[in-house]
Amino acid sequence: SAALFPALQAGGACATISCTITYFKPVFTGVMQCRTKLVNHGKRISTLSSEIWNEDRLIATAHGQYSTFKR
């Protein structure tokens, strides 16, 4: 959800509706990197998609839906 914060309006917040993680391979060494895209930012619901990489290997994907609202 941290990737969603720059898209929120001033005073905005978010809460997780759902998050699905699919693991493909184990990691024992090396540097891991997460690349996240804001797929859709609606009035009340936003969707994020992430890929987790270890060097040049795709390790996992994650897809999440978040409720966005003002505090």
How many helices? The count is 0
Average pLDDT score:
92
Cα-to-Cα separation, first versus last residue: 16 Å
Apparent shape: elongated
Cα radius of gyration in angstroms: 14 Å
Helix content: under 10%
| Widest sheet, order of strands | 1-4-3-2
N-to-C SSE series?
EEEE
Largest sheet: 4 strands, antiparallel
Query: Which secondary-structure class do the elements indicate?
Result: mainly beta
The total count of strands amounts to: 4
Percent range for β-strand residues: over 45%
Which runs of at least 5 residues are low in confidence (pLDDT < 50)?
none
Summarize this, please?
The chain is mainly β and 71 residues long. Helices cover 0% and strands 65% of the residues. Strands 1-4-3-2 form a four-stranded antiparallel beta sheet, with no helix packed on it.
General description of the model:
The chain has 71 residues and is mostly beta strands. Helix content is 0%, strand content 65%. The protein is built from no helices and four strands. It has a four-stranded antiparallel β-sheet with strand order 1-4-3-2, with no helix packed on it. The chain is elongated and about 40 Å long. The mean pLDDT is 92.
SSE layout and pairing:
Layout (H helix, E strand, L loop, with lengths): L11 E12 L8 E10 L3 E10 L2 E14 L1
Antiparallel strand pairs: 1-4, 2-3, 3-4
Keywords:
0% helix, 71 residues, elongated, mainly beta
